[in-house]
Amino acid sequence: MELLKQLCKIHAPAGSEAPLTDFVLNYIQANKKGWKVQPEIFHGDGFQDCIVIVFGKPKTAIFAHLDSIGFTVKYDNEIVKIGGPVIKDGIELIGEDSQGQIDSKLTVKEDENGDKTFHLVDRPIDRGTTLTFKPNFREDENFVQCCYMDNRLGVWNALQVAETLEDGIICFSCWEEHGGGSVGYLAKFIYENYGVKQALISDITWVTKGVKHGEGVAISMRDSGLPRRSYVNKIIGLAKESGIPFQLEVENAGGSDGNALQRSPYPLDWCFIGAPEDNVHSPNEKVHKKDIEAMVALYQYLMKNL
User: Fold this and answer.
1) Of 78, 81, 280, 292, which sits 20 to 30 A from 133 (CA to CA)?
2) Structure pTM?
3) Is the pLDDT of residue 56 over 90?
4) What's the Cα-to-Cα distance from 100 to each of 122, 124, 165, rounded to whole Å?
């Protein structure tokens, strides 16, 4: 879990993914010699802060978003959200501006009309500075817990799958937590250059009354997006065949890079498959190790058999 711990520490909220992009590129360069197939890597000009890795003759693509939720400093140390982070008095936030490192606590202020604003205490902070939760990585026999399991665990999963992947594509996308913006051109690239029409969304979902800790990776039949049922049924059939523990999720809220694929002009089928977490979008996101193991195993199986 050392790699996951490193990923969770990197300051890369939506719009500021570059530090994580650099980390992932360096990780790939340092480790790809031990992978089963040597991939072709696309990044930089034309890809912004995204990365596309192509293995062999791909039929299916994995999408994993690099970005996290966070905050932007406005005026007079007021802060505004990037995505949908939990807001609570006393949450520790970190970042860096022209004066150096920032390690401060969030304060909620309410005016006479009941309107709330969010502020930082301590010194004045430069406008436009990005802030993220202060990481506190915890691990025991059954669970891992830290901020940004969503979606550093999805990125970690994709990197584990890369080690043995023979045919497939991995797309590391940006901006997912704040409405998306990169998946359209990534879909264009993989469809027009490789004819790929199938996608798996490597992301993290919620523990709910229907999806529990320790009972397997969640295959989402729908959330705010509605994947094509015949494709989802195919995945469920393969999951049953594999013997890997999984749970079926049905929700009407929440979204992912799959929503952006559905809105794109390219005929890419998609399905969200991810481990469930407690304490969503907070500093204490918590995932069961059995669900992580099942997530990696099912992705490996599907990338071979879809």
Assistant:
1) 292
2) 0.97
3) yes
4) 13, 12, 42
